Amino acid sequence: MYGIDFSQRMIIAAVLFASTTLAMVQASAPLAEQLRAIRSIGPEGRGGVEAGRAARELAQADPAALPEILAAFEDAGPLAVNYLRSAVETIADRAKKAQRPLPVGELEQFVGDRSNHPRARRLAYELLEDTDPPRAEKLLADMVDDPSAELRREAVQQRIDRAKELDEQAKAADGSKREQLLAKAEATWREAFAGAVDDDQVKEIVKPLERRGHKIDLQEHFGFIADWQIIGPFDNREKAGFQAAYPPEKEFDPEASYDGQLGRVAWQPVSTADPYGILDIAKELENYKGSCMYLTAEVVSPRQRDVQIRLGTPNAWKLWVNGEPVFGREEYHRGMKIDQYKVPAMLKAGSNRLLFKICQNEQKEDWAQRYQFQLRVTDEAGAAIDTAETPGPAAKSE
Amino acid sequence: MRRRSIVRDIWCQLTMLAIVGNVCAADWRQFRGNDADGVLKGAAGPRSFEHQPWSAELPGRGLSGPIVVRDRVFVTAASGYEQDRLHVLCFDNAGGEPLWERQFWATGRTQCHPKMSVATPTPASDGQRVFAFYSSNDLACLDLDGNLLWYRGIGHDYPNASNSVGMASSPLVVGNTLIVQVESDAEAFALGLDVETGLARWKIDRPRRANWTSPSLIERAGGEGPLVLLQSSAGVSAVEPGSGREVWKYTEGAATIPSGVAKGQQLYVPSHGLTALRHIPGSESPELLWREQRLGPATASPLVVGEQVYVINSAGVLNAGRLSDGELVWRLRIEGSYSASPIAVGDLLYAVNEAGVAKIVRLGESEGEILDEHEFGQTVLATPALAGGALYIRGESHLWKVGGGTKALNVAP
Question: Which of A25-34, A193-202, B234-243 is predicted with the least confidence, judged by mean pLDDT?
């Protein structure tokens, strides 16, 4: 071959291999350094300039590096994720302008692996969608219960659109063909409902299912806590009760009674039948102006896990999980909405006690009279956590 | 020979300064323009809506106004079910072609009233960088080519500094400090950030009440550089931009939606209608010049052109008041509700109502005259921009350029 003997070819091959390996090591070393700088970003903007510099250097990488950068989302906080996203977008933009291919196979694999960071998977999906839309759309078929809220939403929407199409086709069909189409549409609506976590989609799905005679339990679907123990009122005149630590904050004794704002108070059961789990204190008890109430409920988790406690209320509130304060907010009458607040928390295996403090102020305006809340426990995508599994050994020992 | 070289160098530098000066004069770098007063200086504006060189489709909603820096137009948007996808978009000013887009995930709360958007604050620029700020208190600093320089999750650092109906205050650049006002019932503060690093030069506590006003500027006596005006329900605090030190304050309460406007060393603040204030050097509180209930603005901020102050009231009437004594001089019905603040260049005022009907009003001493009117066909809540002879209007889903350029184009991203 071109006058080069076998040994010379081996030497050339060895030199090529060594130089390629060296180049890879040289390339990956800075990559690791850049990823470290980005993931080191601290609070109050500390390390932001270094992270920005690293992201811009990272953005010079070859498209082949995209899977490695996406994988780095795993140990990154929400701020670092945005620096990484910026680098990924820049690489993809440049590749697009230069008509260079993206590693679509690896991206597809990355999206399909649910153990990867949900936002990294979503970004990989968007790159794929931009490059090969049918290939990306195909992936959605298996994502109706996906841990990524964004991918899950699109997968549910795909089902909704398909179910509507089938219903339309059924209208134009006759006899057994019509029955088949209707059955297929119903199955698709049910699949969509099983995955839906966003209220607008749930509302859209519930109507056709109810028309077909299905009884929908929205409380159960969303995971709202309907049954509580309540105690109060305690004094919150001049909004001083928000900061005051009344006895229920210090202990939970279901048999105890305390001096309240209007006399002795004791724990009593209260529940709501509202489909969205709204517990209206003004309706169930009284709109005690300038008061605080405490509510408690038990949540069982089969394992230790991260959750989001999602709540809505127009009142000031504080929340504890297993005696530990997790968040509080002193804002009155700025509206109420499902999932208005998302509080990250950790549940232990077995029984977990939630304590919720809700405060009413003394405003007299008509729009400032609501004294209510709704609360649910979900995974990161917003799906109700499964509390029905058998508790693990840790729970049994408690 | 050497003297000729020095002369040539000086000439080059002067030429460069003139170019930079021209470029700066043609920019509209932040909410209500470079001086945060809604007025473009030393330029002209379109007298009709006839010529619309380009429009561009936007990927999400926003109440943020466009800004113009050199040959680029920047706008922000938010998309997604929870509006947690934050967009920064850059368009070519001449032709409207999209040059780049960057997206981020919100790290703070994205809850807001349906009329509001997470992309409500108008971005700001110092001519080299763009500061994109959102209701979630995310703050991205990018260069003009879209490279991320730094990113602050102020909502991540201070999770209680949010408002369930949304935050709206636009950031303000003064020299090398970026001022952001983050005020809610639960937590309230203002930050002065180093534009190069995003790190806080100062942080001061603010009245713990919901507030949607934006910081503005006022001249200081003695040529010591401007002061930043921080307005809230408690009143107005004038602080030094570099240190956050309070120089004077007005404590008689002020509006929490329309922001005040200054001309020279006088401030016209929405407070008990409209209140005119002037600071006397050495004093801790300003002198009250006049107060006029009939000049109280609704949502849109007041504007000063020449010797008159202009406000739009809740009935859709443009009121002109005399700067010297607050006397109501003339009124003109311009119809509709206005969220976007009016802006002006020369004797022309531009106002767009919420239904997307825009008007060009010629401002006279004794009367106003509507020169032209145009329906943009969609909701407009964002304050427009003026730069290089053109007007930029941001609607629910589109950005339009009116006047100025020559190329006719409709652009989708």
Answer: A25-34
